[in-house]
Amino acid sequence: MVTVVLALLVVPWVPQVLYPVFVMKLLCMALFACAYSLLLGFGGMMSFGHAAFFGSAAYITGLVTKYWGLPPEVGLLAGTLFAAALGAVFGALAIHRQGIYLAMVTLALAQMVYFIFLQLPFTGAEDGLQQIPRGTLLGFIDLRNDFNLYHLVLLLTLAGLWLIHRVVRSPFGHVVVAIREHEPRARSLGYPVNRYKLMLFVLSAGLSGLAGAMKALVFQVASLTDVHWHLSGDVVLMALLGGMHTVFGPAIGAAVVVGLQYYLDAFGGWVTLVTGLIFMVCVLSFRSGIAGAVLALTNRSPRSGA
Predict the structure, then answer these.
(1) Following CA atoms 167, 161, 51, 256 in sequence, which dihedral angle do they give, to the nearest 10 degrees?
(2) Euclidean distance between the first and final Cα of the chain, in Å?
């Protein structure tokens, strides 16, 4: 983990090797995937509407910074809080269902959010909300400089991943896993199951919103693709590919998917086919995802050596 962080710190100094803007997108999607896995992998709740949190935060960040003229830190906070509030609404309506029914409720709600942002006057409809100003962080850090913005995105992403790690390892996280494994038993032990599930939903939505808000500043645009159901499908793919029962595994899945989309962009629609084939191979070969397979191999190696 330390090696990965050190490598990420070096990225702005070697732009000829890795384009910093590309790495910033990867960081945003890694946080998004890990936030989603918090709900699916540890909470056992399948959501097909997480793009609503990601995209709505991007739009709100653009609204606050471009039209209201407020600094970027306020825009990031506003986008994150809006996504968390939206997650509370989604969660309150969805947690009383399970399995595919919960997934369909979240998908239907996300489609409502999509059409709302399609119609709102400030969103630019199909053209998107463009020219979102990066502004000046805390009044003296110019985020128009990619070097400064990169370190902000890296810092916020690492903070979000650290929070996810702490939540998973906390008593709250253990109760959430217990609810996933056997909800009736957890309920019989006196745990307020719905409250735990709602809190997890809000936390996942808020962190997804933070990822979307950062993405809006990086690319200075919020578009309908950010709230489209296709992005919800992509984040499910990232979580499953990386390993949804691991804390940081979905970040690996995000790196694979974003890397394929970036480096195979010249092939157009073939990217989807290649991604699908890789997904099939990984699912058939690594049932627990890439990170899960690596952990299993690592745990087995000392025994084989002994």
Answers:
(1) -130
(2) 26
What is the Cα gyration radius of the chain?
A: 19
Tens digit of each residue's pLDDT (9 = 90 or more) over 273-294: 777 777 777 777 766 677 777 7
254, 242 in Cβ contact below 8 A? yes
CB contact at 8 A, 279 and 237: yes
Which single residue is written with the structure tokens 């595919």? 100
Question: Whats the size of the chain, residue-wise?
Answer: 306
**Total-model pTM:** 0.90
Gap between the Cα atoms of 304 and 167, Å rounded: 33
β-bridge partners, 136: 142
pLDDT digits (tens, 9 = 90+) for 119-171: 888 888 888 888 899 888 888 888 888 889 999 999 999 999 999 999 999 99
**Three-state SS for 250?**
helix
